[in-house]
Specification:
Elements: E1 6-11, H1 16-28, E2 32-38, E3 58-62, H2 68-78, E4 80-85, H3 92-97, H4 100-121, E5 122-124, E6 127-128, E7 136-142, H5 166-185, E8 189-194, E9 197-198, H6 207-217, E10 221-224, E11 230-232, E12 234-235, H7 236-249, E13 255-258, E14 263-265, H8 266-280, E15 293-296, H9 311-317, H10 325-338
Parallel strand pairs: 1-2, 1-4, 2-3, 4-7, 7-8, 8-13, 9-12, 10-15
Antiparallel strand pairs: 5-6, 11-14
The structure holds nicotinamide-adenine-dinucleotide.
Amino acid sequence: MSSNMKSILVTGGAGFIGANFVPYFAQKYPEYKVINLDKLTYAGDLNNLKELIDAENYEFVHGDICNRELVEYLFTTYDIRGVIHFAAESHVDNSISGPEVFIKTNVNGTFTLLDVAKKYWMEAPFQYKEGYEACRFHHISTDEVYGTLGETGLFREDTPYAPNSPYSSSKASSDLLVRAYFHTYGMDVTTSNCSNNYGPKQHNEKLIPTIIRKALAGEDIPIYGDGKNVRDWLYVLDHCTGIDLVYHKGRAGETYNIGGRNERDNLFIVKHICEILDVKKPRNDGSSYKELITFVKDRAGHDRRYAIDATKIETELGWKADENLETGIVKTIDWYLYK
Ligand SMILES: NC(=O)c1ccc[n+]([C@@H]2O[C@H](COP(=O)([O-])OP(=O)(O)OC[C@H]3O[C@@H](n4cnc5c(N)ncnc54)[C@H](O)[C@@H]3O)[C@@H](O)[C@H]2O)c1
């Protein structure tokens, strides 16, 4: 490793968003060495990082963010100068059936990373070691920490936390730990809270991949409840550019909401995908994929609406989403059809 290369620890880089972020980041910043620590749970897939096979500034480490010894070893071995923390259990349905691992990874794991970083970078509260002053910890979180919205209103950075699922409450807990390391120890931290992502490399279990996969297989496409749950959809690469900006230019101790101003309900999403597939890959019998839509029993405690006010990141950091739902969905479908 050349001596002026800076090592950045990325966690969860084999998951959906991480596997979009790491190639983007490693290619954009050849002066960084990106160390990707991932446990490869069911949600991690190294096939999603194939484009990095020849990259000289990328290394994969198979391991758990809760393993303090390992995390300490990585900090000293690579002289880690920044953390971008994606690793989490991320599926709400799984958090309802088995919440414990969400607490372990999302809460204890985040704590372990924060605490090791503090020890490695800092001498005392509010005092960085010489040469380590620029080290930053960026935490990736979700808009689900704010709870649910009615017909109107938007989540802002000052919206009170009101998480409703084991998933969102474990993420909210991790956000508060990050906050505490800023206020108590003066550690340089930033957090971004993002709306629902979609795009290439997303795990099959999530809504949009499920719709595409089931449609192409000619199976019933399950939609929860009445299909009227609203999410604010963001193309994953727009999330990646937002994280990059916050990590490099955001103010320490601040949180930034990232959202695409693309609110749609699930019924719109499923119908829209079916219409695109009807054109791109017509069914043999000439019928529409929409005939496969099937309503199923709603998820317990299903939040009705999430929507983000992204004014802060837009005005302060100049971030803007490049894709809207219509353009991003086509790119996503093409990835599933032709990957
Ligand atoms: N997907 C979204 O729509 C969305 C929206 C906002 C925020 N987020 C947040 O972004 C982050 C990434 O989400 P995602 O959708 O890519 O998740 P994902 O479930 O697709 O990937 C998570 C990754 O973390 C790894 N991992 C899990 N437990 C680990 C552990 N203990 N140690 C090391 N690695 C571990 C998994 O192997 C996987 O590669 C999460 O923190 C999530 O809360 C996601």
